[in-house]
Hints:
The protein has 442 residues and is an alpha+beta fold. The protein has a domain at 6-23 and 131-269 and 320-439: Outer membrane efflux proteins (OEP), CATH 1.20.1600. Helix content is 63%, strand content 14%. The two termini are 36 Å apart.
Amino acid sequence: MGRWTASLVGCALALSTSGGLAAGLMEAYLAARQNDPTFRAARYERDAGQYAMAIGRAGLLPNVGMTGSYSKNKGERESTRVDLSQDLDYRDKAAAVVLRQPLFNLDSYMRYRQGSVQAAFSDAVFDRKEAELAVKLSTAYFDVLFSSERLALTDAEIAAYRAQRDLAERRRKGGEGTLTEIAEAESRLQLARAGRADALDRLSVAMLRLESMTGKAMAPLWTLRPDFAPEAVQPASFDEWSALAQDSSPEIRARRKSYEFASLEVERNRAGHYPQLDFVARATRAENETISTLNQKDSINSVGVQINIPLFAGGRVNALTGQAVANRERARAELDAAVNEVLIEVKRQFMAVETGGSKITANQKAVEASVVAVEGTMRGMKAGIRTNTDVLDAERVMFIAKRDLAQARYEYLVSVLQLKAAAGVLSEEDVSAMATLLLPVN
């Protein structure tokens, strides 16, 4: 669990009167921790992996067993000297309790160490999937917000083109406009309506994806602060992020544990050449064991050690050891590959965060300039130096700039989370901090 606050998992979820979930990012995240099927599977996978330690330890602890038997025997004895037969029917009973404690068993010891490694491996895998949940949930949440903004911009675009079409019709009636201007405005209007249908579909799919993770119907989501501005992430250099990833990345930690497990598997297979020494204690109770012990009860207690020395197993031990060595080298190669992939992903997300801030700034300036351009073009049309087509083009550029700005903002936020996840330092506090950038819907 580490950096993730366990108490938040059991936090009561605030529900609206309509049965929908309170739509803040943290509320959605907490609901996803409880209801997302993929994450629930990951939690059970982690729980199953933790039992490996107890399973491995069991091979070093005493083993106590009890056996018992009851038999009804029928028989007859005939004499060859005299005409005499004897009934030999009898019942025999036996019970024994055996305690076996390993004193030296290298195979069991290696299994015990492997159990600890498996438990640590399951923790690393769960940490990776926990971070993936945070990124996936946040991405789905921001995708809904962007789809909503895109739909609102499309509605504004439709209203603007409709107004330009109506203006073109009035100008034509007044003898100033042309049929071409009306047709161009109508064309832009219909294209915008087609874009609205696409935006509505995207919003529906995005909401469905989010609700499939939270398991709850979502109320109107909180929106990104209009004054949001990106801040430089810390640490500021890629080398520091690279060092963090090599120390903390759950993917690298998991591969290291896989390599450690494979190394122990080599030693465990080599243990097939070593003797095994056990302490054995036995208590036996028997009655009428054989014909010669009829009407007798025996009680035997024994304590001692038992040694098993392997001499020859047909080459099986050598073959298993060779196979384990090959698997160990494969695990080493997979570890090297995982380190390379993680560092590449960290570099990619680090660059995405750096360029993301620049894109937001550039798009913000583009929006401001396009708004001015639209206003100037409309004044120019009134003065007779610009056409309706010029206004339509300026408005189109403005709406594209606004969409690009919205997309750049959400992509930046996701890149920050993905960078921290790749480096293995994403925590619940990061999701909470991201949630403070949103405002509730009035």
